[in-house]
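Good morning,

Attaching, inline, the backbone tokens for the sequence recovery test we're adding to the shared suite. The designed sequence is right after.
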């Protein structure tokens, strides 16, 4: 029931996934199993999260065929070089118990370090070697993407960025779209920092008989974003999955767009790292 989006390299990614950011390593396996049992088939992790082993354990114990799953991991900030990008992916594969991931991302561009171009060239080689089906980036601004376009030969398949109604990133999402790069949204429901208490969302949710979180996730889906909300609560994991049997009106989407305050939860990509 989860639609897929075809990336610029032909790989198809489920538009809804389950994120494991800030899930304790010892709890990760159980949380991912619950998500898989609910119906999720797209799991988003990262070297930085320290819980790849738990993700791998859940996948192994689920009995779900590998080709029915979409697994993403991301390069840690201490791995910015051609060779380290490949080496650290191999270490991730060992922790995950997989022979490849479906998507490998540069987690942060770290422009002050200025090594993301050579790192991307390592990503290109990792894809050629079959260690990952697709390669992409995370938290890249247009100027970072433009350098990759000039100095390398592969357009990222996705750009995973912070997007939610308090930070809609319209210009960056438009840039991604114009260059054939899919937008993934991290912190899609605002990490519980006041977003879901907004009256605009409450009004729409009440009319539709849905929760504010479901309304926000549906807003992402209708904007074409790929989302992977995280929750430690089973009922919310299940609730977040139930967003494909209703639609927002154009007025609803516009009202949520107007909530934008250019308010970040995470770091500015030009400063991070």
């Amino acid at each position: 029931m989860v639609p897929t989006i075809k990336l610029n390299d032909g790989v198809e990614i489920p538009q809804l996934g389950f994120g494991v950011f800030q899930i304790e390593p010892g709890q990760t396996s159980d949380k991912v199993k619950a998500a898989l049992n609910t119906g999720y088939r797209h799991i988003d992790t990262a070297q930085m999260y320290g819980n790849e082993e738990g993700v791998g354990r859940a996948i192994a114990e689920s009995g779900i065929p590998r080709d029915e799953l979409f697994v993403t991991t991301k390069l840690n900030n201490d791995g910015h070089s051609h060779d380290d990008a490949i080496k650290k992916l191999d270490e991730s594969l060992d922790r995950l118990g997989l022979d490849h991931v479906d998507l490998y991302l540069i987690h942060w561009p770290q422009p002050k370090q200025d090594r993301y171009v050579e790192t991307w060239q390592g990503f290109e080689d990792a894809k050629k070697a079959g260690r990952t089906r697709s390669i992409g980036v995370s938290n890249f601004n247009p100027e970072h993407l433009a350098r990759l376009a000039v100095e390398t030969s592969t357009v990222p398949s996705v750009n995973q960025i912070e997007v939610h109604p308090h930070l809609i990133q319209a210009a960056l999402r438009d840039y991604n779209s114009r260059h054939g790069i899919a937008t993934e949204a991290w912190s899609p429901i605002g990490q519980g920092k006041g977003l879901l208490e907004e009256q605009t969302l409450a009004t729409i949710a009440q009319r539709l008989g849905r929760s504010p979180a479901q309304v926000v996730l549906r807003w992402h889906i209708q904007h074409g974003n790929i989302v992977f909300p995280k929750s430690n609560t089973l009922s919310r994991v299940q609730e977040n999955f139930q967003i494909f049997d209703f639609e927002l009106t154009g007025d609803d989407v516009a009202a949520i767009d107007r909530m934008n305050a250019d308010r970040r939860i995470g770091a500015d990509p030009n400063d991070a790292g």
